[in-house]
């Protein structure tokens, strides 16, 4: 199981996601360009001292990521898709999160083998990307028996 972040905009969200990934022992793919300089200082407050514990792969663009991805791409999206509580995850899934400001372009959306949405209360648009990542990762790890011992 891995998390992939498509052109993330906000360092604090990435730091939080890296901390989550460290705690659950999953790797993270960062698909550039990013909206901030990737540095310890940018990630420091949210990622704290957890960031060095994460296996992070940086990819210069979508094509570079797509060329090496192993496993199914599971896109978390607000645009339809299967509800999280009915989706079926596999151990080698890559949970793809879009950019905070613009999500993912149509060609990336169409590339996903599975599009999943987290059901929200009526009139609510979306969750913070770091919160959504934690919710989706938790369900995926639960289903696949992937939680750390």
Secondary structure layout plus pairing:
Elements: E1 2-6, H1 11-24, E2 27-31, H2 40-47, E3 56-59, H3 62-68, E4 73-76, E5 82-83, E6 94-97, H4 106-111, E7 114-117, H5 129-144
Parallel strand pairs: 1-2, 1-6, 2-3, 4-6, 4-7, 5-7
Helix pairs in contact: 1-2, 1-5
Describe this structure as you would to a colleague:
There is one protein chain. The chain is an alpha/beta fold. It has one domain: Alpha/beta knot, CATH 3.40.1280.10. Strand 2, helix 2 and strand 3 form a beta-alpha-beta unit. It has a seven-stranded parallel β-sheet with strand order 3-2-1-6-4-7-5. Helices cover 34% and strands 19% of the residues.
CATH architecture: 3-Layer(aba) Sandwich
Major sheet: size, sense and barrel closure? 7 strands, parallel
Percentage of residues in DSSP E strands = 15-25%
The total tally of domains equals: 1
The number of distinct helices, counting runs of at least 4 residues, comes to: 5
Q: Which residue ranges are poorly predicted, with pLDDT under 50 across at least 5 consecutive positions?
A: none
Distance between the termini: 15 Å
What is the N-to-C order of secondary-structure elements (H for helix, E for strand)? EHEHEHEEEHEH
Instruction: Please state the CA-atom Rg, rounded to the nearest Å.
Output: 14 Å
* CATH fold assignment: Alpha/beta knot
Q: What is the CATH first-level class name?
A: Alpha Beta
Query: How many runs of DSSP E, i.e. beta strands?
Result: 7
* Classification by helices and strands: alpha/beta
Salient structural properties:
149 residues, alpha/beta, Alpha/beta knot, seven-stranded parallel β-sheet
């Amino acid at each position: 199981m891995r998390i992939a972040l498509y052109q993330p905009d906000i360092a604090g969200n990435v730091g939080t996601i890296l901390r989550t990934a460290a705690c659950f022992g999953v790797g993270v793919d960062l698909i550039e360009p990013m909206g901030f300089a990737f540095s310890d200082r940018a990630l420091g407050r949210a990622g704290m001292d957890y960031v060095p514990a994460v296996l992070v792969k940086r990819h210069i663009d979508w094509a570079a990521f797509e060329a090496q991805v192993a496993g199914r791409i599971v896109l978390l999206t607000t645009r339809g898709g299967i509800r999280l509580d009915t989706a079926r995850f596999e151990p080698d899934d890559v949970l793809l999160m879009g950019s905070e400001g613009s999500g993912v372009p149509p060609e990336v959306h169409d590339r996903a083998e599975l599009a999943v949405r987290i059901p929200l209360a009526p009139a609510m648009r979306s969750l913070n990307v770091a919160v959504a990542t934690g919710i989706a990762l938790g369900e995926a790890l639960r289903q696949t028996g992937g939680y750390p011992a």
